[in-house]
Structures are given as structure tokens and as C-alpha cells.
Amino acid sequence: xxxxxxxxxxxxxxxxxxxxxxxxxxxxxxxxxxxxxxxxxxxxxxxxxxxxxxxxxxxxxxxxxxxxxxxxxxxxxxxxxxxxxxxxxxxxxxxxxxxxxxxxxxxxxxxxxxxxxxxxxxxxxxxxxxxxxxxxxxxxxxxxxxxxxxxxxxxxxxxxxxxxxxxxxxxxxxxxxxxxxxxxxxxxxxxxxxxxxxxxxxxxxxxxxxxxxxxxxxxxxxxxxxxxxxxxxxxxxxxxxxxxxxxxxxxxxxxxxxxxxxxxxxxxxxxxxxxxxxxxxxxxxxxxxxxxxxxxxxxxxxxxxxxxxxxxxxxxxxxxxxxxxxxxxxxxxxxxxxxxxxxxxxxxxxxxxxxxxxxxxxxxxxxxxxxxxxxxxxxxxxxxxxxxxxxxxxxxxxxxxxxxxxxxxxxxxxxxxxxxxxxxxxx
Length: 427
Known about the structure:
The structure is a single chain. Helix 7 crosses helix 8 (203-210) and helix 7 crosses helix 9. The protein folds into two domains: 9-138 and 298-361, Periplasmic binding protein-like II (D-Maltodextrin-Binding Protein, domain 2), CATH 3.40.190.10; 140-297 and 367-413, D-Maltodextrin-Binding Protein, domain 2, CATH 3.40.190.10. It has helices at residues 37-53, 66-77, 92-99, 107-112, 146-151, 161-173, 186-201, 203-210, 219-233, 246-254, 311-322, 324-334, 349-361, 369-372, 375-390, 395-418, and strands at 13-18, 27-34, 58-65, 85-89, 125-126, 129-130, 133-137, 140-145, 177-180, 258-264, 279-282, 295-296, 299-304, 337-338, 365-366. It is α/β, with parallel strands linked by helices.
């Protein structure tokens, strides 16, 4: 599921140096991706606060748009220009980085700071060792424009699939796009697949699919695609959504042209003040009321590169970010929740409503399709979801192609896991 999209090449990277001399041994390079201006400002504030608390460290922060960052980072980690600290996300790709020897083992920091009592460790533990610090997580859900729904004669938020279909019909007849969608960003489509499958078939089954233990030709997956097809056929989405990215979808929603938007709470930090009062949040609608609560709540992480030049100050940075005060401040600025269980959960009523959605789900949490499956499966899945959205009548062909990828993708993953992780490269 993941999240800025349209930034010009000239503005793709924003670097900020805090300190006097870039060449000093105490120079710390931090690389992050950000989805909007609110997140960029939050990271800038974090870097400035860290430098203020550690004036002997020259902090150099680089912020990139997400597509550029994701594409460039893997190769950068294997180069002499690897950042000291960088952000990524929990899930299969983080595990692969650790197994390829691209991450520094930070088990010593976990032990020294007794982080076992502070953070959920499963998301960042590989082979019994810790490789990252989780710093925020954010549930996904359905945002609605109360004013737009009212203009279409809809008196309450749609809480089940039938209500969604009815709302789509009313919104379309009233001249609105029912659901804003940036399908150009495949992760946005993947979110729809995640939720429909979890709501229709349950968390346990969906987890089996993510783990490669269920086939995409299974009747349950066919049911998921069939329900999704109903929404597409009912014109719930903009038919040109494949040409629209996240920024465009948010603009459509903020501009009052669409009634609903499926997104993570992290988007709430960038809500224009003029529309914030009319935006509501709810969990994804029910499909099978007998299924236990389950949600998608991606966790973002900071880690140290194996080729980092300043691992000592990188560890100081992780410790700084881990504090309850820093965690709470960063999460509030980002529109997310702190992973530090001792940090206060602060924010708007909207945020606190979504927090209850998380607590209700308990342990039934997924990171998101493109984070939870091997990279080859994620690429095939996103391409398949886009093909399905363009031609929903081709759902069986899409399911066959996904299942053809499943075997090789998970076999390759098993082969990689069988090889002991590299110990990390020398600087």
C-alpha cells in the first residue's frame, strides 16, 4: 500500500545540511521518502531537533519522492554512497535487505535500550536479530466527504458492500465520482484487493495467500475478484483512474468532486483546513459479518545501512527517535501513530477514531500486499490488479498469471532464506 507521487525531476531530492562542516567524522547522512509537504516538514523538524540535541553531529537530510526513492535505494545501499540511516517499511522487502547483508545488525541497540519492552519486534526481526526501529504505523480506511454524500442524498457513511453500491449509484447520478482512486499507483489498487479479500474470506485465509500457501485460482480469490468487479461495473471509480496517481486522487477528493477515498491515516496531516471539518473516517465496510476484525496498518522503519560510514551516530539517531516524546511528536506531524507503546497517542478525533479501529483488530494486521509478498509477486500482483481494473472481464486470465508467478516467486524466497545472511560489508 504505500504513498507522493508527482514531483519534478529538479525537486525529486531535497537536501538539508545542519552543522558547519560536511566532511567531519561526525557527519550523519539520513535519507527518507515523503508523500507530501506535511511529511517533508515533519522529517526536517526531526533532523533539526536531533541536531539541536546533538550539536556535535552534522546532519545531512535527503528527502525524495517515493517512486524515485524506491527505485534508487537498493542500488545505493550497495554503493559507497550508502546513507547512514534511511527509512523503509516492515515486511518482506525489509527481510530481503537483511538477508542480502544490506542492513546493519542493530540487536545491540535493542538490547542496550530494552526495546523489547517498548516496541513490537516481530516486524523488524530476521533470523533472531533486529535490523530496524519501527517508528510509525497508520491504519488504512475509507475517508468520506460528509458534504458530498449529503448533496447526493446519502445520510450516513456506507458500512457494508450493499451500502457502498447504493452510494455509488446516488453519487454518480448527482454528478460526482463515487470513489477517488489513484490506480496509476498500483499499491492503491492492491489496498482494494487486500480489504475485499480480508472482509470476504477472513484474515487467516488472506494471510495464507500472502504467504504463498493459497492459490490465486482458489474459489475464495475468485469471490474477491468477482466482488471487486461488481464495484468496477457499477462505475464506483473514475474509468480513467489508471491515468491518475495518488496526488490526483487526493485532489479530486479535496476538491469536492469525489465522495470517498481509501487511504491511510497518514494522509490526514495534509488535509486542507477548509475541508477538514467535513471529512470522516471509518473502517473498510463489512462484507461477511462473521469474519473477525482485520485491518491494514503499514509500519515504517528506520535502519542503518551495512555500508554506513557513521554507524555510531546512526545509533544515536535511532535512540533519539525511539523516545516517547520524539515518537509522539513525529507521529502527530505525520498523521500516524507512534510505535512506542509508552508514547501518548495525540491528534484529532479523526486520528483517535482510527486508533480504535486498530485496537479492535488486535493482532489481525497486515502491512499491505506490496509489503507482505516477495518482490516478484508484488510486481506481478500490482500489474495484474491494473490489468484487471482495465478489463475486469479478464479476471480469470489475471488470476492464472498471478498463480503462475506464485510458485517461482516463493521458491526464490525460500532459496534466499536458506542462505545465511551476509555479515555486512566493511566500510
